[in-house]
Amino acid sequence: MYTIDDLNKKMIENLKFNAVRSLNEQAQFNIDGNGNVIFHGEYNITNKDIEDEMSRLQQLWDDHEYARLRVAEYPNFIEYIDGVVKGNTTQTQAYIDACLAVKAKYPKP
Hints:
mainly alpha; two-stranded antiparallel ribbon; 6% strand
């Protein structure tokens, strides 16, 4: 069983890992004929780079909370498809109305 502190540490480790991976993906490089990676210019990741990228990723996560909340409450899309196949406009409209209610509950910032 994990404590809250354990989970917080794990979350920070994952965020740091994702920040380093993101920074590495942003580096400009080519691969030569022997499979060697050639970086263009000097590319050393500093702790400040990692902290800045962690902040950016955390902000991106926070900015999209509304989307995560919406996904959890949207009705099953099978209801919509079923209504379309049956030609049941009442059923398809009920699905659309339910989706719009979720969007209204969790608006984009």
